[in-house]
Amino acid sequence: MKLSDNVYFYSERGMLDCNTYVIKGESTVLIDPGLEQYLSELIQDMRQDGLDPQDINFIVNTHLHLDHYWADEALKSRSQAKILLHPLQRQFYQTTAVETSHFFGLDPVEVREDGYLLDKLDMGNLEFEILKTPGHSPDSLCFYCERKGIMICGDLVFSGSTGRVDLPGGNAKELKESIEAIAQLNIELLLPGHMDPVGGRENVKRNFDFVREQVFPWL
User: Fold this and answer.
1) Is the residue at 2 inside a domain?
2) b/e map of 183-208 (b: 16 or more CB within 10 Å)?
3) Of all helices (H) and strands (E), which one includes residue 147?
4) Which residues pair with 30 in a beta bridge?
5) Could you give the count of Cα atoms lying within 13 Å of 100 in the half-sphere of its Cβ?
6) Is the dihedral angle over the CA atoms 14, 35, 165, 60 positive or is it negative?
7) pLDDT in tens, 45-99
8) What is the domain range of residue 115?
9) CATH assignment of the domain containing 40
10) Less Cβ around it within 10 Å: N or C end of the chain?
11) What is the DSSP letter of 137?
């Protein structure tokens, strides 16, 4: 589903899947392809929006939990896109990808990066700052386009909730600090890894207020 001129949203399809976002600039980036068993459906939905797998230049992830990254390699083989990891994702690969998969009784799928993300995701006419936001996992990242007020936040914060902190490497104190940090930014469109996007500056602010009041005490 097209959210704006440059942003497409594809909702999670079932257990161990996640929301997928496609950012179309001078180059095209797909964020969090989700679970491999749903990849054909994702590609079908993308094609309905005029997006072909061959249009994708880069695959990136908000973090390397199985529900977000398992289709990386399968999508790469169908698109020839390059997989880019952040140094944090390589540093905490054992904890986030391997140990968390074992937590769910599953063998991890290996991901082989073709390059590294650093501080920015530059697509020519669009630029997203890459923010380190640990808490849900030690390698969690948010992608923020200040000019358009777009925040792709993975499993940091959702509509009315937050990511869990009981998985390997999770930390409630760090999660709260990361949420408070992004809450200070100008966000018009909050795009989480699960559940619905939150649109409108006031709605985003109210969501942060709700999370502080109703969710933080339980973390």
Assistant:
1) no
2) beeebbbbbbbbeebbeeeeebeebb
3) none
4) 22, 59
5) 27
6) negative
7) 999 999 999 999 999 999 999 999 999 999 999 998 999 999 999 999 999 999 9
8) 7-218
9) 3.60.15.10
10) N
11) S
The structure's pTM equals 0.97
Tally the domains of the chain: 1
| Rounded-to-integer distance, Cα 205 and Cα 96, Å | 30
Place of tokens 């009315």: 160
What would the mean pLDDT of 119-126 be, rounded to a whole number? Answer: 88
Q: How far is CA 207 from CA 164, 167, 212, in A?
A: 17, 24, 9
Phi first, then psi: give them for residue 154, nearest 5 degrees. 55, -135
Spatial contact of 20 and 34, defined as CB atoms under 8 Å apart? yes
Q: Is 31 part of a structural domain of the chain?
A: yes
Reported residue count of the chain is 219
